[in-house]
Amino acid sequence: MTGSLDRRGFLTIGAAGAAGFLVAGCSSDDDVATANSTTTTASTTTAAAGSGGGTATTVASGSAVGTELTAADFASLGTCILMTEKTAGPFPLDEQFDRRDITEGSEGHPLRLGLRVLDEGCAAISGAKVEIWHCDATGDYSAFIDNGGGKDDGPGTTFLRGTQTANDEGIVEFATIYPGWYSGRAVHIHLRVHIDDETVLSSQLFFDADDTATVYEEGPYSDHGLPDTSNEADSIAGDVVKEGSLLVTTALANVDGNAGMLGLLNLGVDPSARSSESGGRGPSGT
User: Could you give the domains of the chain?
Assistant: First the structure.
C-alpha cells in the first residue's frame, strides 16, 4: 500500500484490527471492565531505549480520532517496568508541535501509535507530555540536513514530529507512518516524556524484523530496500534484545482497504527522574 495517511484511513484502524508494541505494562480488573467494544487490539512487545521540553506550538494538521483508546486496550500488555534511559538523538527540537496527526502527507504504511504513561506502581500519569519524532520512509528527518540517504528536505520542515498530553488514563495517540531507516541503525522511533517542564525519560522504540520486511515490500519503502542493521546489531536496541525484553507479535489492520497497523506501548517512567540526555545531532550511531 502506498500513499499518505488520510483522516478516514486513520479512523478505520481501531475498528479493523491491530499490531501492538509493548515494553512494559500493567492491568487491573477495573481496566479490563472498561473495555471499548469498538476497538480491536492485539498485544505485542517491543523495546525502548533511552531531554527538555520546549515551547509548545499548535499545528493545524492534527486530526480527531473517532474511537479513542482506553486503559482496557493496554490491559494485556504485561507488568510495569521503568524504561531504561539511553541516547535521545538524533535531531530533537526544543520546539514542541502539539498535534496528533504528524504525517503532513508523508507517504508510507499507516501507523496508529498509542502510548500509556505509567509509574512503577502502575498508576497512570495524566498530563505527561509525550514527544515523538522519526524519519520518513526514505530515511529523512525533518528540520535538519541529515545526510540519511532520503530526500533531505532540511530546515523549516516539521513532518513526523509531534507531542501529545496524556489524558486521565495516561494515554496519548499519534497518527503517523511506519518509520523508514538509514545506515547503521535499526528501524526506530525517538521518544521523550516531559512532566512539569522537566524531561523525565529519553527513549527509542523498535520494531520486529518480520513487521519491517512485510511493510517494506510496499512503496515507497521498497525503493530503499531492507535495513542494513538488525535490532540485535543495533548500538541502542542490541542490549535490550540480548536481555530478552524485545518480544514482538503482530497483526495487520485493514485501513480503508489497505494494510495499516496499531502500535501499543505501556511506557513506565519515574516522574521524579531527570533525563541526562541532551540529544545527538548526527545520524551516525544514534
Answer: 7-268 (2.60.130.10)
